[in-house]
């Protein structure tokens, strides 16, 4: 009925959701079980359930580093057996099982793991053979990975919106990227609990902490009823909007329409409008009107000065606070890493890796400008990176200094000159080669990737610099 392509998506997704759900069940049911054992239980669950007998070819993983690589043989696959009753398949057909394996592993690694079936019993092989890797491991623009990102790994979206072509439906079924998953990690449980409610939620935090992502996540969670997301800046809230809230448009016969309205900078709602707005939100709640998600700057719960008392009591009962990066110790590198992957893909580059020094610098920075600052720094670094090069601490320092919002911020260390010879000589693992190489890199970054300009800065000719960069790279 669906056609082969959509049927495959349907079954992959069904399997993916079952796999994720079983993984959650195993983790919650046996919290003290070694994570490796809990993970490999997936293969046994698959066997017990009578779907397929799993035989491990190899299975190597490191949960902390999100490294994973596995190959399994599947024997007596029900999907392959069912298919081959009629004819020999031209392509592998164990779609549900493949989705299950991917979903189970993705839940454990908290990143998208994609399995591919490279041989299938339905094609006449004696068994099916599947290979699993993290999404990034399949390379850029892998069509199967893209399919998983767009259509399969959407377990967080409980939307019942059918696969229509409307932009609203597409928006509702957009999956949570690995970056967004990391950004929301500290508040994910809370958001999940709030997603089901239609009551207003107040999201506070410093700018750039991902408040908008949290709002979108809540919207998607309630997408079974809410189909449209509208953003309004507090300053723009007027009596017309209040009237619209208080008298919600009746659901059409076609489908229940429910809007989510995100009020950005809710503290900027004009003081004379605030009481009207508070009343309108209350009426809207009673009438099944739009859902209100309010975003406000970070403030102590006891003092929300810009809010009128009425507005405060309507909006603040359900409150989520996005922590700033300064409070996210131990997570900053993972965030930067996921952000780098995403940006590189968007900029059409092969994602580079961070050198050890850069990793340390990223983790020790407090990032007062939060994710926005981190994104700016990474874009600047990527923009000036030599193809195939790794990202050094010096490059991060330069971008930090260049993008520092004001000179006072250099007090945090980000604005200091990138190279201090005294400090360098005293530091572990110093080498003249490394220094030489980082000078070339700094020159390249400052010259925005222009080799001639970088050479001029260093008092070299273009050819000399090209030769030296090449040599430095080889001696590394
Ligand atoms: Zn198969």
UniProtKB/TrEMBL annotation:
Protein name as annotated: Sigma-54 factor interaction domain-containing protein
InterPro entries: AAA_lid_NorR, Homeodomain-like_sf, HTH_Fis, NO_sig/Golgi_transp_ligand-bd, P-loop_NTPase, Sigma_54_int, V4R, XylR_N
Gene3D superfamilies: 1.10.8.60, Homeodomain-like, P-loop containing nucleotide triphosphate hydrolases, Trafficking protein particle complex subunit 3
Keywords noted in UniProt: ATP-binding, Nucleotide-binding, Transcription, Transcription regulation, Two-component regulatory system
Lineage of origin: Bacteria, Pseudomonadati, Pseudomonadota, Alphaproteobacteria, Hyphomicrobiales
SMART domains: V4R
Residue span(s) of domain Sigma-54 factor interaction: 184-378
Keyword Lyase included in the entry's annotation: no
Keyword rRNA-binding: no
SUPFAM superfamilies associated with the record: Homeodomain-like, Ligand-binding domain in the NO signalling and Golgi transport, P-loop containing nucleoside triphosphate hydrolases
Source superkingdom: Bacteria
